Amino acid sequence: MLVIGLTGGIGSGKSTVAELFAAKGIPVLDADLIARELVEPNQPAFDAIVRHFGARILRDGALDRAALRKVIFAHPEEKRWLEALLHPLVYSEIGRRIATLSAPYCIVVVPLLLETGQRQLVDRLLVVDCPEDIQRRRVKLRDGLTDAQIGQIMASQLGRAERLAAADDLLENIGDEATLAERVERLHRSYLTLSRQKT
């Protein structure tokens, strides 16, 4: 099976693009959603996270993501600790799920694919891109974050030029959804062709 890695900066439109592929019947695995599953109570990472960070990151017996986000963005060493715990678990689970699929290709959404050195997990890299001012505006509307918080997140991600240089395929998300859907359709046809060549 052809494995397409889908990445891009925060607010670039990765989720929208993933939904467009899913609407075509293509399996989509999202690293962020898998990570959320892995940190639920009674899941592999939950106890380790609570032991490390303490009760300050809990709310009603579950992980308080907002509290955890504040800690890891204020303390880079805590962010590194959390990533060292979660990334191997997430990538292992992605591999396990890919092995169960039967489709011409699948999309694996990994916002930090390049930053975590996991490019080898995918056959092709699709980067969703838009100018940084559009990213900031989308994130502010979607998540209600401050400019400073958005800046911190963007600073923790690979620079736009580096992401673009690493792309096998580039999807500019600066127009309307109909234009984006047309671009996804072209990529879909291309990936179907490539998947036949891979087998």
TrEMBL record:
One of its GO terms (biological process) is coenzyme A biosynthetic process. It is found in: Cytoplasm. It is an enzyme of class 2 (transferase). GO terms for molecular function: ATP binding; dephospho-CoA kinase activity. Its EC number is 2.7.1.24. ATP binds at G11, S12, G13, K14, S15, T16. GO terms for cellular component: cytoplasm. Keywords: ATP-binding, Coenzyme A biosynthesis, Cytoplasm, Kinase, Nucleotide-binding, Transferase. The keyword Zinc-finger does not apply. It catalyses: 3'-dephospho-CoA + ATP = ADP + CoA + H(+). Its main location: cytoplasm. Pathway: Cofactor biosynthesis; coenzyme A biosynthesis; CoA from (R)-pantothenate: step 5/5. It comes from the Bacteria. Belongs to the CoaE family. Catalyzes the phosphorylation of the 3'-hydroxyl group of dephosphocoenzyme A to form coenzyme A. This is Dephospho-CoA kinase. The gene is coaE.
